[in-house]
Specification:
This protein has 368 residues and is α/β, with parallel strands linked by helices. It is built from 16 helices and 13 strands.
Length: 368
Amino acid sequence: MKNICFFNTVKFWGGGEKLHLEYAIKFEEKGYHVYLVSDKNSTLSEKGKAINLPVFNISAGNLSFLNPLKYFKLFRFFKKEKTDTILFSSSQDFKLGAISSKIAGVRNIVYLRGLATPIRNTVINRILFKHFVTHIVANSLETKRTILTHLKKSIDAETVKVIYHGIDLNIFDNHPGNLCFPVAEKGGGIILGNAGRLTLQKGQHYLIEVANRLKQKGIRFTLFIAGIGEMKSTLEKLIEKYHLQKEVVLLGFVEDMAGFMRSIDIFVLTSCWEGFGYVIVEAMAAGKPTVAFNITSNPEIIIDNETGFLADYPDVEMMSERIELLSRDENLRAKFGKAARERVEKNFQLDDRITELEDYLLTEVDRN
């Protein structure tokens, strides 16, 4: 294994794209020849080029696997680079990446699954998983469960490797120490934080309901929501409906997530599901307690009543009660935050997870 391709054509910047870039950098540091395949208009392509990673630009959609020209371009590229390992994760890249790399004779065809939702039991999916993909990596036990929900006959459960996402603690430990400026400027009372794309899946509408209950309880707080997305106008209407303009701030995209996490007191996640809640780990790395719904992979990261609290889904009253408890007890926040940081050091360090992935890729997986 010498020449590794990280194949991701998603245009927006999310957790999967961040993972591809971080993993590419780490494998390059280990001495591998690494490059990206991405859309020319994607943030991943821009960031890769900015740090001088080789980038091959190609667009992909759900029907791109029917386009012979794209196969030909990728075939020539893989052959030219002598690619022996390719990793992809998005559904739009799955068919094109698996088929084109198989045609080119790529030895390791690796599917990184980050969504904790079942994969459709279609004929082409069964064929690809049984005969094309050589390695399957799930980012949580919950994600592994959903991979196998409809495809137990096509995938041997023993061949699906669970490797949690890792985080580079140096980003937090070597941070200059300055707080996120909008938080430092506008924050008052207990500072609550949330980060993620403004989508139904991330459930920020529940967060506004929680904020309304906290205000009714007389708790002085400011909630900062970092992220962009199609739900922005809906959230703005909810904020106006509950007269929370002074308590809730939509920050938009935040680049310095370490600074953001260092600026808050409690991190709150209201997602309806998560393959792996990377932002939870970021908050824990900053030594912050977390409150989230007890769904999908969240219990694999948060230890209830030790590093934070898990609330029943979608019980916003229970979540507000847990936040109220933390907001009134500084010692409890410090205790949970310390335990959270220790859990990250033990289970979610990036270098450890890279080594785990490297060892798995170097292993011959029996898929018969």
